[in-house]
Model the fold of this input.
Amino acid sequence: MNWSKYRNCYGICLGLVTTSLLLQARDLKFEEHLISNDYTYAYAVAAADLDGDGDLDLTSSDCGTKGSRVHNAFYWYENDGSGKFRRHSIASEDWQGRYERHRLADINQDGRIDLVGIDNFYGDVFWFENPGNPAQTKSWKRHSITSGGLMGAYDVDVADLDGDGRPDVAASSWRLGNKFTWYRNPGPWQHEEWPTHVVDEGRFETRMIRAGDFNGDGLIDLVGSARVAGMVLWYENSGNPAAGPWRRHTISLRHLPMHGTPVDLDRDGDLDLIMAGGLLGRDAPDRHYLVWYENAGEPGRGHRWRMHNIQEGFWSGFEGVPHDLDRDGDLDVVATGFGQKGQIAWFENSGDPTAPWKKHPLKEHWILGATVIVADMDGDEWPDVVAVNERGLELRWWHNRGP
Done:
């Protein structure tokens, strides 16, 4: 037997294992880049290939007053492929509206990514149609989903809720509306407003709304937070959501929940939920947090969701999103903190999400950190981080250089 062959194999394998351990043990390196600080109010950001050139572009909202300047705008930032951006307008209005959180999806199914958004001031939900040549178009055509019908409109998500093959829209309505609604896409891109269906109401200060199949029955459910009510709830899709009702289930009654993301964090085949909370809460550390709620399987049948801390005392937690930042095979979490102690950080998953997480700050003292996303902005296959801060009036990205 040729033992030298096996000794060589052993040496190579040992070297690979050692290299893997070293890579996992080294911190990732991030380079911070300012994309724009020309805002009057920066609140939201999203990413998609808007111009069809193969790289990810960005969208962001701007609303507010700065001196004599009144802004109510959606921008898109054209990516040159290396993470350098040129700003274009999707919509720019000279009145006091509040374009804020939004989602990117192909609403009219023409193969181009559109923008679904809200006007918090007027209570509008709408979508802007991608013209196909967005770099040569000064503004995108606006289509109404509801005009003034959702006072305090705040957050949106897009999913086919009724199973007819067309993307529908779900929305929350902040403290002026205190409810969750969904809008059935009538197709084929009618000019009238979309049929409106109430999912739940009377939940004080509804914030997050996200879609996902939480009970594994093949139907898309909804999950939402109500900050002042201190509730995180999921709503079961009956299969005929236009007829209703949506059966309500409680995930958590913890105070001041804000934004999070449904994801199978523990890789057991069902959707868990990452949540940040504590916006405008008192100084007590337990009122500021980043957590995840474990779906125990068959939720809605008496199975409670188990809470696991990612970090207790994460000041004024605003939003948490998952991604495998270090490419070690498990999902890490990036989160923003609001308030005067605002921040952005990523939290390293050890491989067991129920074990302690390691915090890696990206930027501290970043006042009023708000929406955050993770996407590969320069095509190097390392996921980067993009975020805005509301009153710092900045859009920044953090280039993930690897370990």
Notes: The CA atoms of residues 280 and 389 lie 15 Å apart. Confidence is low (pLDDT under 50) at residues 1-25. The chain is about 5% helix and 45% strand.
